[in-house]
Every structure is written in C-alpha cells, then in structure tokens.
Amino acid sequence: MAVTTSLDVDIFDAMMARAASEGITSRSGALRAAVREWVRDVERQPELHED
What we know:
There is one protein chain. This protein is an all-alpha fold. It has a domain at 25-51. The protein is built from 2 helices and no strands. The protein has helices at residues 9-21, 27-44.
C-alpha cells in the first residue's frame, strides 16, 4: 500500500532526530519507524483518534 503524505519541516526534523537516536539513518527507515509508532499509539488509545 502507498500513502501520500506531507510533513512540515519541524515534524520531519523531529522524526529524523528521533530516528537517529534509535540508530536509523535513512529517511525511509525513519518514516517506517514513525508510522509504526503512530499505529501503536492508535491501537493503544483508539478513543483519542476518533474523528
């Protein structure tokens, strides 16, 4: 599955900084790690993400 998204500079920089702290050096790896974390967050607390 492919999903098009856009990230502002601050979010992108924060994502890359966190990834670097976890030893992830590529943008694609950083994005995969961020998406995994976002999905885990939604699974843990779905009521916070209802639209």
